[in-house]
Hints:
There is one protein chain. This protein is an alpha+beta fold. The chain has helices at residues 23-30, 41-53, 55-72, 95-104, 148-163, and strands at residues 2-5, 18-20, 36-38, 77-81, 88-93, 114-115, 119-121, 123-132, 135-145. The radius of gyration is 31 Å and the shape is elongated. The mean pLDDT is 82.
Amino acid sequence: xxxxxxxxxxxxxxxxxxxxxxxxxxxxxxxxxxxxxxxxxxxxxxxxxxxxxxxxxxxxxxxxxxxxxxxxxxxxxxxxxxxxxxxxxxxxxxxxxxxxxxxxxxxxxxxxxxxxxxxxxxxxxxxxxxxxxxxxxxxxxxxxxxxxxxxxxxxxxxxxxxxxxxxxxxxxxxxxxxxxxxxxx
Length: 185
């Protein structure tokens, strides 16, 4: 089923794109939510005419997206999160934290246009910000341990336990319980 999108949907397409979707997805979600219309021949002609009339507006929208993207070039994020002694995060770092960190830096970016696989360990990741269908910015994200001092102390204690000599305890004599003979009457 062909659908003309009325708004940007990450992973599917952008506004005014004609996309093929399964009929259930189109009829039960996209059309009732107002996110798309059926791409009939008449709807396609109307879309082509509207795009021709809006060409200069679309150029301005793309220029604005490029301006926002230029402001984000060179931005790198470092997000601190609580980590267990095994290096796993308690929870994960996702697009909500990315949007919050960008807002702290003065960049107002909607979390809906950011994509990133959730970070569940410490390390380096890449977040993509989709300003326009032709303008995407990659933002390097470094997830670090918030409780690094506690991790170092736990690691030092663990290493000390491994390095300590093992002392075997002297065998303890077990008391043998005397069996009572059954009493016959």
